Amino acid sequence: MIAARIAVQNGLTTLNTHVKAATGEEVPQTILVTSRQQYGLPDDAVVFCNFNQLYKIDPPTLEMWCEILKNVPRSVLWLLRFPYHGEPNVINNVAAKEEHVRRGQLADVCLDTPLCNGHTTGMDILWTGTPMITMPLETLASRVASSQLCALGCPELVAKSRTDYVRIATRLGVDREFLAQTRAKVWKSRTTCTLFDVRQYCSDLERLFYRIWKRYEDNQPADHILNE
Length: 228
Prior knowledge:
Pathway: Protein modification; protein glycosylation
InterPro entries: OGT, OGT/SEC/SPY_C
Protein name: O-GlcNAc transferase C-terminal domain-containing protein
GO biological process, one term: protein O-linked glycosylation
CATH topology of the largest domain: Rossmann fold
Keywords: Repeat, TPR repeat, Transferase
CATH superfamily of the largest domain: Glycogen Phosphorylase B
Shape: elongated
Oligomer: single chain
Order of helices and strands: EHEHEEHEHEHHHHE
CATH architecture of the largest domain: 3-Layer(aba) Sandwich
Strand order of the largest sheet: 4-3-2-5-6
Structural class: alpha/beta
């Protein structure tokens, strides 16, 4: 990095404790603590969620969400409780990690915040098998979720524009077959992709460090390195 060269690691991982925090099984519909009723969510509604802190929700994002809710009959938006001004919406308290991860499965679709994505929150929601829609902007903080989705093998959930974001969310909300297929894909990909494979990521990263050091030992000039 001092020589202004870049080492690129293949794949993506962030702070990952999901295997320890939640076992990842399907939510039993007969257990109250993991049912929609426990959180005041309608059983027959399409539940869009976002569990980020509210400072990440800028006016353009809120406008997109309102348009989505208008497009999808019987849909609700599930947010966390921070300021009391937002409480007319369906809002719940911040929960312990295991409950937070498991209850995310009760939502149909997660609507990410483009300005500043859900980072660990994005990993949490994807681990539950819930699809997440995002739209990358120009900063690193606004592009993490798109990297997560691409590593998961779901680039179709990365919107190219605000119009595209609304289109994807609306289709997931009104097309139950498409939603079921997408959820099944996300659920299966959790255990087959590199996104949650910390062991493999660490192994690849060690191999990348070795290649960097080997170039130094061999007195080769600094250069860009892609760890494939």
